Amino acid sequence: MTGDQHDQLAVAGPDELPILHVDMDAFYVEVERKRDPALVGRPVIVGGSGRRGVVASASYEARAAGVHAAMPTARARRLCPAAVVVTSDFSGYAEASEAIAEVFESVTPIVEPIALDEAFLDVSGAHRLFGPSPEIAWHLRSAVRQATDLDCSVGVASNKTLAKLASVAAKPTVQSSGPEPGLGVRVVERAEQIAFLWAHRVEALWGVGPVTLRRLNDIDVVSVGDLAAVPIERLVAAVGTAHGTQLAALARGIDDRPVHRGGIPRSVSHEETFDTDVRDPDRLRGEIVRLADAVASRLRANGLVARTVAVKVKYPDFSLRTRAQTLAEPIQTPRLLASVAHELIARLDLSTGIRLLGIAVSNIAEASAPPVRSSAGVGVEALTAPETQLQLELGVGRHFSGESVSSRDTESGPTGDAELDRRLADALDAIRGRFGGAVISHGAAGLRDGAPGERRWGR
DNA sequence: TCTGGGGTCCTCTGCCCT
DNA sequence: TCTGAGGGCAGAGGACCC
């Protein structure tokens, strides 16, 4: 431990700075480098390699050439011709992420995952075992390194906003000469937090994206210090009530959001951008079935059901349209999901072709939990067993390829088609569990390169 | 030679019900 | 019986995050 690190430990009291933000350094790139050591020291770009792919992560060497996340891969290649482009493999990153999560949970049970490569931790209950927060931060860094051979940066502060900004300050930087190591851990003491906060540009704050930034710049707000000085009425007029009041609080260092442990997701979705715009109705029907299968698989794998189904399309001019429907009964199987999605997509104009198709479900509950009642008072009996879930008011399509729900179908009983549907989904799950996701798919979807919903640019 | 995927949250609008 | 107000919810779109 360096002298600076000891100074930090001496200043921070155990309860002063309960929040840690841990962020892995160039996570996807470093996972790829563990798999292929030949990538070490070379500029690396991880992302979609197809015609419409974008950069998911870039090594610090590639960042020095101007490459950044969300940039089209084709442009990144031009900026950094020496870079090795590796296609994303999210299952591999998820594995590393699980190992990191285990390290976090060995320190505190209050962990809020933000993404595969970052999380907030509330360590207020961990001081007796692990010491003051800065000491916990250094311990986490070395424990993550030991478990995964990967580096992370840790921010330590009194709240989430400050901890997040602190972890950014702790990260390696990119100089013209190449990557420079960062602090590793940055502690923001209470006495310095306002000065630290106000020195940041306003876009560093959570919730300030391109649109909000433009609106803030319009009222001469550039730094967080500027933001703190603006009368709240002016701020609210510029960015709206909820956003304005939240930003005003954040700019004053006020952020009382607790660290939430991960729970049931609010929504589950799967979407895909096609290599070329799709106009063919048959092709679209197949894609709907494939996407529905992907979403349903994830619901079933996590023991969840959902009541609202939405479809999303992106047109060639990048305009987006969504159509959604909330059902009286929660659903979980691919055939039901595809049926509803087919009905929704029929309400959209597809004559110009589309570049993206997505299916999302929300209103999610555990399969064993009593479902939410609709505003119309349509009651749903509590679902307590998989068999009970089959008692769906909504009927099922006649064909596995996803024919629309009809009134005649609605009259079908709790067994019959629904039972077949469940058994079919169970069988698919079992086969995929044993042989992998790519071995079987629905007839209308056809066999593709990967499992349902698996990214087609996967390894 | 364009612009991914998987999420969350907020706002606005329209509808239904009281 | 009609009408308006207001609450709650669904649906659609948008902004933002990593």
What would you say about this model in short?
This protein is of the alpha+beta class and 459 residues long.
Question: What would your notes on this structure say?
Answer:
It is a single chain. A hairpin with a 5-residue loop joins strand 12 (304-314) and strand 13. Helix 5 packs across helix 7 and helix 12 packs across helix 13. A 5-stranded mixed sheet has the order 5-6-1-7-10. A 4-stranded antiparallel sheet has the order 11-14-12-13, with helices on one face. The protein contains 18 helices and 14 strands. The chain has 3 domains: 22-155 and 170-175, MutS, DNA mismatch repair protein, domain I (3-Layer(aba) Sandwich); 200-251, Orthogonal Bundle (DNA polymerase, domain 1); 267-447, DNA polymerase, Y-family, little finger domain (Dna Ligase, domain 1), CATH 3.30.1490.100. The chain is 38% helix and 20% strand. Residues 3-14, 370-416 and 445-459 have low confidence and may be disordered. The protein is globular and about 65 Å long. With 459 residues, it is an alpha+beta fold.
